[in-house]
Structure formats: C-alpha cells, structure tokens
Design goal:
Number of domains: 1
Number of helices: 12
Radius of gyration: 17 Å
Order of helices and strands: HEHHHEHHEHEHEEEHEHEHEH
CATH topology: TIM Barrel
CATH architecture: Alpha-Beta Barrel
Distance between the termini: 13 Å
Structural class: alpha/beta
CATH superfamily: Homocysteine-binding-like domain
Strand order of the largest sheet: 1-10-9-8-5-4-3-2
Shape: globular
Number of strands: 10
C-alpha cells in the first residue's frame, strides 16, 4: 500500500474527523442477507463486492475513517461454520483490502481502521452488551492475539478496539498491543455512566491513559444521550483525543456536536442504524479547521 506522510494521530490535533456509519444496516439496505451467526462477516466471505460498495457509500458521503468488516471475524467462530484458519486469516486481510480500495476511490483523505470487535461479538448472542464471559484476561488475550496480528500485517492505519463491554477485555486487548508500536483507539459500549458490565467509566478510561499504543478513546454502540457524560469522564481520565459513534436513536440532527467537540471529541460518526445520508449531514455539520485536501490515504 502506498502511504502518505500525515499520521492519523497528528490529524486529530487539527480538527474533528468524520467516521463512517453502521456497516450492517448499510449492507442490509444494499439487499444483503445477514442472517446466521456471522452477521456482516457473512457478506465479507460470500460477496465482498458488497462490502466494498458499503465502504464506498460512506466515503462518498464524507467519511474520513472507514472501519473494516472484521468486527465479527474470529478463528473459533468461523471454524464453527466450516472455515479453516487459513481461510479466516485471509478474510481478515480481505477486510482491510476492501476498505482500502474504497478509500482510494474518493477525492478526499481517508484512513482505514481495522475493526477488532469484542469476544462476545463472535458468539452472535449479544453477549458483547453484557461482558463478563467467564474468561480470564489471559484467555481473552489469547483469543484476540492472532486476529490483531493479522490485521496489523494487513496494513490498516489504526486498530479500532471497539464495542468493548468491560475492563477485563480492555486489559486483554491492551496487553496484546503492549510493546508492538501499533496504533489503536479504544471504544467502550456503555449504559449511562458505566460500561455494559457495570464498571465505572472513570476506571475504564484510565486504562487507556497509560497505554502508549492508544491514540484515542471513547464510546460507540450506545445511546447518543450517554455520549457527553462519557466523554467528560474520559477527558478527566486522559488527555488523549476522544471519539464517539453512537447508535441512531433520535437522528444526528439531535446530536449536540458542539458539546461533544468541546469535551474533546476528535472523531465522530455513527454505529447501528446510521447510514450514509446521516454521515453526509454530519460531515456538513462539523466545522473543519483545515481543508480536507486531495485524494489518497494517509497513514498513522
């Protein structure tokens, strides 16, 4: 992959970047079948052109960061559906390649974030919204390590450690990254002022403060009403840039973007139910401190 010179971490110091929206809802709108235990990863395996089309739709809408279709891709989960390790590893690489292709097809700068979803996402039973899987931090790290290593080798600009429901899984993810020199963001799914597993957000965000690999921290896959308090808690725990990409519960027109930015948000987008039209509206609403520039990707 050809790289340009500006790191994502540096870009976050200049202005707020626009993240993409929900991949699953966009694939559904394109007519894809997401039934079964693999969800959007099924489309990645069976019809990758649809995944690239979804990424392209968001990039054309103004998204500056595309999150790959690797959220639910895990070796164990795919083995249950008949995929061997080699094929699953290839799919993780394909997820980055498809987002990269979409990034190169538009006339503004786009970064690619490789999604590292929580362990619960691969179970397809909504346990990512509960956490506390009964696994130790060491066991969770062993689960995440091979997929993280593959995604890093595939050349994504940043890892999106997203929809993390509890601090045990955050510790596991950060232990895998420790000493690698990788760049990642850490994003919790929250309910009120706590993680989905019920831990105080101040404790959860404090974990990221001490991790040099983490370039931003925040929340996703949550109600928009919970974002501001979470960002304020994160800002008290770390000086790192913040991010937010909540679900569509009331429409982006009702999101207090100015307040989120004042709290420290430097990447804002959408998660479940947020499509390209809302991302386009978000891109129009966010003031840019500098021009968005020409085409091509930029690296971390």
């Amino acid at each position: 992959m050809t790289r340009a010179s500006t790191p994502l971490a540096e870009a976050l110091g200049h202005r707020t970047l626009v993240l993409d929206g929900g991949l699953g809802n966009q694939l559904t709108d394109q007519g894809c079948d997401l039934s079964g235990g693999l969800w959007s990863a099924r489309v990645l395996a069976e019809d990758p052109a649809q995944v690239r089309a979804a990424h392209t739709a968001y990039a054309r809408a103004g998204a500056e960061v595309l999150i790959t279709a690797s959220y639910q891709v895990g070796l164990e989960a795919f083995a249950r559906h008949g995929y061997d390790r080699r094929r699953t590893t290839a799919l993780l690489r394909d997820a980055v390649t498809l987002a990269d292709g979409a990034a190169r097809a538009v006339g503004h700068e786009v970064w690619v974030a490789a999604s590292v979803g929580p362990y619960g996402a691969t179970l397809a039973d909504r346990s990512e919204y509960r956490g506390r899987y009964g696994l130790s931090v060491r066991e969770l790290a062993a689960f995440h390590r091979p997929r993280i290593e593959t995604l890093l080798e595939a050349g994504a600009d940043v890892l999106a450690l997203e929809t993390v429901p509890d601090t045990d899984e955050a510790l596991a993810l950060l232990s895998v990254l420790a000493g690698t020199g990788a760049r990642a963001w850490l994003s919790y799914t929250v309910a009120g002022d706590r993680t989905r597993a019920g831990q105080p957000l101040a404790d959860a965000f404090a974990l990221a403060a001490a991790a040099p690999e983490v370039i931003a921290v925040g929340v996703n896959c949550c109600a928009a009403a919970d974002v501001l308090r979470a960002l304020e808690t994160a800002a008290a725990a770390t000086s790192k840039p913040l991010l937010a990409y909540p679900n569509d519960t009331s429409g982006t027109a009702d999101w207090p973007l100015d307040a989120w930015q004042r709290a420290g948000a430097r990447m804002i987008g959408g998660c479940c139910g947020v499509g390209p039209a809302r991302i386009a509206a978000l891109a129009d609403a966010l003031p840019a401190a500098e021009p968005r520039g020409g085409g091509g990707r930029r690296s971390v």
